[in-house]
Write a structure and sequence with these properties.
heterodimer, A: 2 domains, 5 helices, 80% helix, B: globular
Amino acid sequence: MRYVFYLLALLAGAALSFEGAIYAELGKTIGQIETSFYNFFMGSIIMGLLWLFFGKGDLSYTLKAPKWSLLGGILGVVYLTSIVVSVPYVGVGITMVAVILGQLVMSMVIEHFGWLGSKKTKINKEKILAVLSMIIALILIN
Amino acid sequence: MGLFIILFTLIGGITLSAQSSINGTFSRKAGTIETTFLTFLTGTMFLSIFMLFFGSGNVLALVEAPKWQLSAAFLGTMYLLLTVMAVPKIGVIATSIAGIAGQLVIGVIIDHFGWFNSLVIEIDIKRAFALLFMIISLYFIYKGNKRSSEETD
């Protein structure tokens, strides 16, 4: 049953690639920050509707939750901005390698120490090999 | 300057994995849809300020943009929603690796066919090997995760 969630994560990445290619076109006509804004604005509307009709959780938890757990939206903006700023200077290839490297190493550290409320799972040989294989793949693609 | 920019981009990657874990934690109490909704809402607030001060484009041109370009928002929403669903089940690193693999595979395919006006870069031996290493990476992360969950059981 767990492999379904691997498939979902793969699908999430696929969506991100399509999104990136399409937004590159939109960015040319309306501007890059404007494109980011549009993405978040439309996302709010789509999720607002989904929440109204299908939300079973507890949105009021927002007010009780520790403040650091509300930072998700801002972090997403930092991510997007760093890409927009970086591509014109160092190109798409290096930008992609740097972003993914930061993401993978940080994921490993977060899980190893169980930071930010994630389940604590130790780094093992297989995880390091997984990250190494991904780095080789990235070098080959560029 | 180049090195400074690369460091900044590394931080971008770091924030993305921090976002995945924070949202995963938040969703356990608040729910998946609620977490994604809140992330978009706070992101919009932040970007509104950012756009007003630093935006040099024309956001009103959205009305004239082709509809297929505007439909990308559904994909962006799907990405976040699926990530929030996956993290509590398989962890941050497995979600990141699987997500990156999906991203690169589709990226290579888009390049190969030159979809969405992108540069045409055909699949060659190097890229075929890159795809192979990605599959190897997915295999290792699956095994590694299985082992650590067996150890904690």
